[in-house]
Amino acid sequence: MFYRPEDGHGLPHNPFNAIITPRPIGWISTRSTRGIDNLAPYSFFNGVAYTPPQVMFASTGGKSDRARGKDTLGNIDQTGVFCVNVVEAEAINEMNASSQSLAASDDEFPHSKVTKAACNEIRCSRVALSPASLECKLSQLVPLEGEDNYLVIGRVVGVHIRDDCLVDGKFDITRFGMVSRLGYRDYTIIRDAFELKRPDD
């Protein structure tokens, strides 16, 4: 089949997200200027550069108690910092609980039963038991086409890695089962990996 998005796809469910998979989940933690912590998962997330290390995530949709975007976007816009936490298999339920739409005055950490820890380089909390957390300073906040679509790019200024996730000097995502988003309401847990050398290696 072929379709133009502006004309619609004619299927029971939109196939777009299912085509771009798997997508690692950026479990983004932020803090408001009032000191209220926020935690929310974003599946439009990835790394974009090595030196300096930079990551991106996209925020789509808005909230009635925000002028634009969601609490995560509002906090980053005001404070200029955020933390990306990796989601492991054992934290699926907590991650999902943190996706619930709450008032900006509510802290998702206790609501989702997630233990928080302080970041080192930025004023923000992180997920204490996450296999890895990336402390970031805002580099760019880019409005995208469409209502309430924004791209957030951050420079990584601090990296936390849980010791049991390091195997022979490598961060091993199969050790803890990295959770990734597929299409629709589907997810996957990465348990297997293989090495493939490039022709120029």
From TrEMBL:
<dbReference type="InterPro" id="IPR002563">
    <property type="entry name" value="Flavin_Rdtase-like_dom"/>
</dbReference>
<feature type="domain" description="Flavin reductase like">
    <location>
        <begin position="18"/>
        <end position="173"/>
    </location>
</feature>
<protein>
    <submittedName>
        <fullName>Flavin reductase family protein</fullName>
    </submittedName>
</protein>
<dbReference type="Pfam" id="PF01613">
    <property type="entry name" value="Flavin_Reduct"/>
</dbReference>
